[in-house]
Write a structure and sequence with these properties.
heterodimer, A: about 325 residues, alpha/beta, Rossmann fold, 2 domains, six-stranded mixed β-sheet, four-stranded antiparallel β-sheet, 11 helices, 13 strands, about 25% strand, disordered N terminus, disordered C terminus, B: about 325 residues, mainly alpha, globular
Chain lengths: ~325, ~325
């Protein structure tokens, strides 16, 4: 899958080759190759238990590496964990805080562990809490915080750390839709500041919008990696699905003649679904007009990761290679 | 291959935070109240009986620690029983508590080693116990001054300070045990129950089981029984078995240090006592020498148990 990597001259901030973690005989992470480029939002996606968290823990030097190599910002996390952990922020899955302490006190504790100088600490904490919108509850005990607030407090910790890489494990799981949107917005702000964001999730559709590139995990392997549209072309054979509702003679034939269209399905007498490599809506409209038909609706479905994932495993289980979960 | 940086980076931060948590926690308050009230009751009885006793005693202050007036045991015996409870109370959820609160991976993602977290927690709990015991020690001396009106001699103060030091190491053994169990068991309740079980076994059941086991290992020679004497082999076995319990080590060390007339802690033959002036106190240095093996045993127990939890914690997976 290396051919999909963007051609950049800067070295990747996270670089893994043949990374493997075995517990006894079972490999939880099995020989994955990964290059994450500075400033991108990279998604580790896949079902629970596919090896996403273990991969993240190996990047932080929090679990042993059975074989293979990994470097984070040029450091080996197994040998120089402090250098890595000083530059990388981590928001664990279902992050916890000390309930009896306030939000500020919790951040002050980790701030001290990070070795932030006393003079800077208070300012950075306030700034971080303001960024995530928790400044009003800064002196409330964390015991009263909702799941979404805890998640944002975890993000405030990464902002306070001024991390170069933010690693977020399942940041949106268990959040209500509004909290999810707010959180995804905060991730977008991190990206805008040039922070590399690595996030893992099992909610493919939720995170696909903010990820520049994704890696789909399956039983310890990365089965697909790249930008979502690229993957769509590769797996679905097309990136776009356009639905046309129109009346007129020979529309189906006309639509099929548009360059870039790979398939036209006739759903009913006046409804057609086209799969195409690009957004062919203007061409479709012209085609309908050309036969003097009446165009009623023209819609495009962006390729969804769910579809890509499902289709990929459908194909492979049909071939008897793997079985889908 | 050496790790980069110091394993103690961040330890003082963990220490200060844990110490503040312990001192302000309700749990610690309850444990302190329990100990202070029981100890005060024992002291009250001791003071009462000492006031009626007009005989000259060069170690009046030390008698406060050791005198037992039925139905209450002596101050030292009460501490021997309650210090483990306090140590277990502070240590049983040290590691699994972080797991269950899901703070462990977040804390370990900061630029510190696991060493700092475990050491900081251990030292903070030990310091909490040390502070409480020092306060209790001052209380005893103060009450002694007020109610007995006899200023303590320098040797009495020295002996009672040794008591304080040994008591802290005794607490250390139980604290290490509780922290070891908190590393082994993911559930804090299980760790607490197992620690309390071990505590009850060693303080209540073991003193009864040890003589029975000694009888089984080295049955008493009937010739000694005919003479109405204990078989020395059985007696030695009983004592060696009893010494497996930190409780017994603490009591023996305290006997040597706080009762200056104690000459030996094991069975003695009559001919070994030839020439001894019975009832004469040993010098301070000799008493400390007598208590030394027991003290070293307690220190060693603390270190060994801590080393086990250290190794286990280093190898443990951080993910919940």
């Amino acid at each position: 899958m290396n051919e999909q990597q963007s051609t950049t001259t800067t070295p990747p901030v996270i670089h893994a080759r043949g990374l493997t973690r075995r517990y006894g005989d079972t490999a939880v992470v099995d020989g994955i190759d990964l290059d994450i480029i500075r400033g991108e939002v990279f998604g580790l996606l896949g079902p629970n238990g596919a090896g996403k968290t273990t991969t993240i823990l190996m990047m932080l030097g929090l679990t042993e590496i059975s074989s293979g190599e990994i470097s984070v910002l040029g450091f080996n996390p197994a040998r120089e964990p402090l250098k890595v952990k000083r530059r990388v922020g981590y928001l664990p899955d279902a992050v916890g805080f000390y309930d009896q302490l306030t939000a500020t006190e919790n951040l002050a504790y980790t701030g001290k562990l990070m070795g932030l100088p006393r003079a800077e600490r208070a300012g950075r904490i306030e700034q971080a809490l303001r960024r995530v919108g928790l400044i009003d509850v800064a002196s409330k005990r964390v015991a009263t915080f909702s799941r979404g607030m805890r998640q944002r407090l975890g993000l405030a910790e990464i902002i306070m750390k001024r991390a170069e890489i933010a690693i977020l494990d399942e940041p949106t799981s268990g959040l209500d839709p509004q909290a999810t949107q707010e959180f995804l917005g905060l991730i977008g702000e991190l990206k805008a500041e040039g922070i590399t964001v690595l996030l893992s999730s099992h909610m493919l559709d939720q995170v696909q919008r903010i990820c520049d590139r994704v890696a789909l995990f399956k039983a310890g392997h990365i089965v697909l990696m790249g930008a979502v549209p690229e993957l769509a072309v590769k797996v679905l054979g097309a990136g776009f699905v356009v639905e046309v509702e129109a009346e007129g003679p020979g529309i189906a034939r006309r639509l099929a003649m548009i360059p870039g269209v790979t398939q036209v399905e006739t759903l009913s007498a006046d409804r057609f679904r086209m799969t195409a490599e690009r957004d062919v809506r203007p061409d479709a409209a012209r085609a309908v007009v050309a036969v003097d038909g009446s165009l009623r609706r023209l819609s495009v479905d962006e390729p969804s990761l769910d579809t890509i994932y499902a289709r990929y495993f459908q194909d492979h289980s049909a071939g008897g290679v793997r079985h889908a979960a | 291959m050496r790790r980069e940086g110091s394993p103690f980076q961040g330890m003082s931060t963990v220490f200060v935070k844990e110490l503040a948590d312990h001192i302000s926690s309700v749990r610690m308050l309850m444990l302190e109240l329990l100990i202070v009230f029981t100890a005060l009751a024992a002291l009250y009885e001791a003071i009462n009986s000492l006031r009626q006793n007009t005989a000259e005693d060069p170690f009046l202050l030390l008698r406060l620690f050791t005198i037992d007036q039925a139905p209450l045991p002596s101050f030292v015996a009460i501490l021997g029983f309650l210090i483990p409870l306090m140590a277990i109370g502070l240590g049983f959820d040290a590691v699994n508590g972080e797991h269950n609160r899901r703070t462990l991976s977040r804390i370990l993602a900061q630029p510190i080693y696991r060493d700092a977290l475990l050491m900081g927690k251990f030292l903070a709990a030990l310091a909490t116990i040390g502070i409480s015991l020092a306060a209790l020690w001052l209380l005893v001396i103060g009450l002694g001054l007020i109610f007995l009106g006899v200023p303590p001699g320098s040797e009495e103060v020295a002996r009672s300070l040794v008591f304080l030091a040994v008591a802290i190491f005794y607490a250390g053994v139980w604290l290490s045990l509780a922290m070891l169990l908190s590393t082994v068991f993911r559930s804090a309740a299980t760790a607490a129950l197992v620690s309390l079980g071990i505590w009850l076994f060693l303080t209540v059941l073991w003193p009864m089981l040890a003589p029975a086991l000694a009888q089984a290992v080295a049955p008493a020679d009937p010739r000694y029984a005919l003479l109405g004497l204990n078989d020395p082999a059985t007696a030695v076995w009983t004592q060696e078995l009893l010494r497996l319990s930190p409780n017994d080590l603490f009591e023996e060390a305290m006997l040597a240090v706080l009762s200056p007339t104690t000459r030996a802690l094991g069975p003695v033959f009559l001919d070994q006592l030839r020439g001894a002036v019975m009832g004469a106190p040993l010098p301070f240095g000799e008493s400390v020498m007598l208590a030394w093996p027991q003290t070293v045993g307690l220190v060693a127990g603390t270190i060994v148990l801590f080393a086990f939890s250290y190794v286990l914690f280093q190898r443990q997976e951080v993910r919940a």
